[in-house]
Amino acid sequence: MRHEWKFPFHILFHPFDGFWDLKYENRGRMRVAMVILLLLVVATSLMKQFSGFLVNYYDPRYLNTLDDLMFTVLPFFLFCVANWSVTTLMEGEGKFREIVIATAYALLPMILINIPLTFISRFLTNEETAFYWMLNSFGALWFLWLLFVGNMTIHQYTVTKAVVTLLLTVAAMGIIVFLGALALVICMDMYWFVYDIYRELIFR
């Protein structure tokens, strides 16, 4: 059991071997992936609430942990669903479970960098904020690199096909959001239509 918690750290520095083992040696664990996702929510919330004022652009009066949860977890699963949909059509070999685990493991650099960076930022001077943004960007780029390697490895894609797939995944995410918003608007219109008819019948 101890090895399953060490495995995401192995992927950090050996992504090709790590994601290969995740797929073909079944070394990824869903519970570990969900803990990493939860830690990302915590890291995001801490960053918004406790970052130094020189790098924190959030108004503390409007911070809400539930919003952090929603705007972290929903995009995560939206990406996984969109990626699974696209790769199914493009002969990808990755299963939905593998996509979820690989995507969650790829998030680890953002957590490891952003949590200590949040508290370091409270002691930075204006000239030192460039150091903060450099490390913040480094964590994001590290995440994108792991996401790319994970996508390429679990689906057994070439570099070009992996890039195209990720771009199509982003497009699919936009389409899913659009269709979801459209369905919500239609449902609300139907609700108010039925409600108006009901009121007309009641008050006559």
Report on the architecture of this protein.
- The chain has 204 residues and is mainly alpha-helical.
- Helices cover 80% and strands 0% of the residues.
- It is built from eight helices and no strands.
- The chain has helices at residues 2-13, 15-24, 30-50, 65-89, 96-106, 108-120, 129-155, 159-202.
- The longest helix is centred in the last third of the chain and has 44 residues, at 159-202.
- The chain is globular.
List keywords for this structure.
mainly alpha, globular, 204 residues, 8 helices, 0% strand
Shape: globular
Report the mean per-residue pLDDT as an integer: 90
- In helices, the fraction of residues equals over 70%
String of helices and strands: HHHHHHHH
**First-to-last CA distance:** 68 Å
Q: What is the makeup of the main sheet?
A: none
Any idea what the radius of gyration is? Answer: 21 Å
Category from helices, strands and their pairing: mainly alpha
Which regions have little confidence, pLDDT < 50, spanning 5+ residues? none
- The number of distinct β-strands equals 0
Counting DSSP H or I runs of 4 or more residues, the number of helices is 8
Strand content: under 5%
Helix/strand layout:
Elements (H helix, E strand, L loop, with lengths): L1 H12 L1 H10 L5 H21 L14 H25 L6 H11 L1 H13 L8 H27 L3 H44 L2
Helix pairs in contact: 1-2, 2-7, 3-4, 3-5, 3-6, 4-5, 4-8, 5-7, 6-7, 7-8
Summarize the structure.
This protein is mostly helical and 204 residues long. Helix content is 80%, strand content 0%.
